Amino acid sequence: MLNHLRPAIVLFVLLTLLTGVAYPLAMTGIAQKLFPRQANGSLIEKDGKVIGSSLIGQNFTGQQYFHGRPSATTDTDPNDSTKTIPAPYNAANSSGSNAGPTAKSLIDRVREDTAKLQSENPDAGAKVPVDLVTTSGSGLDPHISPAAAEFQVPRVAKARGLPEDGLRKLVAAHTEPRTLGFLGEPVVNVLALNLALDALAPAKPAAAGEANR
Amino acid sequence: MTLNGWVQILVYFLLLTALTRPLGGFLYRVFEGQATLPGRLLGPLERGFYKLAGVDPKAEQHWTSYVLAMLLFNLVCFVTLFFLQLYQNHLPLNPQGQSGLTPDLAFNTAISFVTNTNWQAYGGETTMSYLSQMLGLTVHNFVSAATGIALAVALVRGFARRSGKTIGNFWVDLTRCTLYVLLPLSIVAALFLVWQGMPQNLNAYTDAATLEGAKQTIAQGPVASQVAIKMLGTNGGGFFNANAAHPFENPTALSDFFQILLIFAIPAALTNLLGRMVKNELQGWAVYSAMAVLFFAGVATCYWAESQGNPAFTSLGIDQQASALQAGGNMEGKEARFGIARSTLFATITTDASCGAVNSMHDSYTPLGGMVPLVNILLGEVVFGGVGAGLYGMLAFAIVAVFIAGLMVGRTPEYLGKKIEAKEVKMVMLALLCLPLANVGMTALAAVLPQGLSGLSNAGPHGFSELFYAYASATGNNGSAFGGLSANTPFYNVTLALSMMIGRFAFIVPMLAVAGSLVVKKHTPASAGTFPTDGGLFIALLVGVVIIVGGLTYFPALALGPIVEHFSMTAGNLY
Q1: pLDDT in tens, B209-226
Q2: Which residue in chain B is spatially nearest to A30 when comparing CA positions?
């Protein structure tokens, strides 16, 4: 027993130094040199200020923006630290809803969201694309399906006073195809699309007032 | 289901198959002490380690000594990780000022990482300091994986060696596996993942002012270095709470493809190592084929079930049809970039192996879709399986299979040239029977105690599935979850940790006893009466044994959870 104690402790310490200190620090150093943008979180800056990450979704509620998927992330309740409150797209506390398929709460939520989407988008197609009423696994999904973007085109066009066809071209330009032609699904990055939208036709002042936070 | 979805699945499988032989050959050379490229580069380091640790790399160990060394090493790991997390608030590299973990959570997480489970009772970005992530979790991702691989190699030596006494040296196997296999592959993988968009920094979390003027705090950290070994070592413990669904922990479809390749790479290669060590690679491919059959059965079922979507959505005016413009299907808890095919492929693989990383939330799967990961875990994660654990688990079933074949013809069974006798069969049954004690037994306990029931987030049969999945995952050292369960309570932290310990050590020790018992036996040359274990008949028998043993043990419990929920859902009942 005792003859195993020395190797157990010494090898543990040595392997810890190698895999827990040298390895992550070396990787950090190399990654910062080779891929500085990705290694620091693919941040997007505008006028010198960080406005988000191209990989992390944001909460959009204004009529002049394309909206992302519902998000189930939460934050600590400022009034009671033992409770949580909904905080969509909280990038410091990723999580999904974990609602089961037969949960009444899930079906109620989806029913409400569907009705809201249909009233906000009266000129859209009859059916709501499923990704617009389901929460993502991380609560931070930066993407929506092309169908979900198309669903919102008439609303955004009206709010911005832009022709629908021009907007469809913008959506098409921001649709990322499958990687190597077959991996994953075609998606639209909502933040990138909205940034392009702002560049094309700056949001009317009303848009800022509509932001709910 | 779409054609493109199946192309993704088939390309994955073909690439995995192509990697199996070269990587298996590399592993063989490492564990046989032959020259390898990393061995030439890091050889001085390996010899330095032995000198400081007082290890004679040529001195081999009897199986009892091998077990003792492994257990003692795991004890040292457990104790240090427990205290590291308990006192992380007094230690450096904590830019977010995370507080120390509660003792029960630190206990659970320490057991979890030492047993290669990586159950996430902790919240990742809201709980762990960077020091705990690096010095704690990353290190244990390496050494618990190396421990599993070492044990599998030791068991294979039991078959391969003739009239021997020893099954290798634990310290040597541990060191070589970490230095020559896990570390070099992790370095390459980490850089690939950073290139794909995974952060690798020690910065504090970033505050962003969003387009609509809100404040968004974006969690950061040394993610890629941990995720590389998390997947390669089939550990699965997330840097972030949402694990591989988090866009930073799995930014693109390509990073997703790469990560699932990392999960199965070593487990698949170990089947080839088995073949090489017993001097007949077909024996390895037979085991590989049995695994492949079970893999395709799982992924086809899961992919089909999730593609159907949620019937309760249809009447609400929601489009769940797959088309050129959307993936469709049951998208609750899934990411848009992965859709249904990549999500279900990932879910199947992570539970075939004892990985437990998730790129979608299993709790929100349809009843039958969610039953696939659960069944994969309950069958013992022998479909390629965890690094090492998958192979020694499948070898346990192989011993049962040849035993049953032997009973049918009334002849002492043999496997890989060794007679399988009463002692081996007893030990294997002991290992296999410990598992239901820890998963079904503990589930029953939690289902009647208020401390257990208070943690459920879903009502009805889905709530039972949540409970059952938790103990199945802990016992199988998987670590994925039906995440709605509030598992960070003293009751769950302690009982789940117990399940993890039983699932790991009560399985390993009897299997090493099998190795010790086999290694002293003479080689029995194959004769006309030998049941060939490198052909189709054996593959079918092995698959049958895995399904029958699993089915007999777990069908009643599955009927109470996902099966009844499925019929309930099709009848339109909600809870």
Answers
A1: 999 999 999 999 999 999
A2: B191
| Packing angle, helices B490-519 and B422-436, rounded to 10 | 170
Tokens 């419990």 belong to which residue?
B557
- Please indicate, yes or no, whether residues A58 and A17 belong to a single structural domain of this protein: no
CB-nearest partner of B214 from A106, A138, A211: A211
pLDDT in tens, B163-205: 899 999 999 999 999 999 999 999 999 999 999 999 999 999 9
Nearest-CA distance from B435 to chain A in Å? 26
Residue of B nearest to A63 (CA): B212
Please indicate, yes or no, whether residues A52 and A123 belong to a single structural domain of this protein.
yes
Residue B164, token pair as written in the block: 């021997």
Assessment of whether the complete model's pTM goes beyond 0.90: yes
Number of domains within chain A: 2
B450 touches chain A (CB under 8 A): no
3-state secondary structure of B215: strand
Q: Quick check: A146 and A186 in contact, CB under 8 A? A: yes
| Segment 152-191 of chain B within 8 Å of chain A by CB | 171, 174-175, 178-179, 182-183, 186-187, 190-191
Q: How far apart are CA B251 and CA A56, in angstroms?
A: 9
Assess: ipTM above 0.85.
yes
Residue A51: CB atoms within 10 A of its CB come to 18
Q: Which domain holds residue A16?
A: 2-39
Nearest to B148 by CA among B379, B390, B351, B472: B390
Chain B CA closest to residue A102: B574
**Tens digits of residue pLDDT in B547-568:** 999 888 999 999 999 999 999 9
Helical packing angle, A146-160 and A164-173, nearest 10°: 140
Beta-carbon separation of B76 and A184 below 8 A = no
